[in-house]
Amino acid sequence: MRRVHVIVGGEVQGVGYRYTMRMVARDAGVAGWVRNRRDGSVEAEIEGTPGQVDEVLAWMADGPPGAVVSSSRVTEASPTGARGFEVLPTA
């Protein structure tokens, strides 16, 4: 299993990024969460097989229609065995 912590920047709030990502993540079969940050970025943790995680990371690089992703920082994290994927409140 692989778990990553991701922060994407750009025009990523107010475009349905989190809720579309929840659908993408559930379709890919990964666990984790996504939330807006007060600085205008979106933060997420994704856990699954390396292929599943890569699939979601590829989507995150573009985001939904209307998003403009200008930066992405991916950090490896320790898998937790989490299940399900949710949208969390803004941090």
Automatic annotation (TrEMBL):
InterPro entries: Acylphosphatase (IPR020456), Acylphosphatase-like_dom (IPR001792), Acylphosphatase-like_dom_sf (IPR036046), Acylphosphatase_CS (IPR017968). Residues 69-78 have a biased composition (Polar residues). Residues 3-89 form the Acylphosphatase-like domain. It is an enzyme of class 3 (hydrolase). Transmembrane segments: none annotated. Residues 69-91 are annotated as: Disordered. SUPFAM superfamilies: Acylphosphatase/BLUF domain-like (SSF54975). It comes from the Bacteria. The active site is at residues 18, 36. Pfam families: Acylphosphatase. It catalyses: an acyl phosphate + H2O = a carboxylate + phosphate + H(+). This is acylphosphatase. Its EC number is 3.6.1.7. Keywords: Hydrolase. Belongs to the acylphosphatase family.
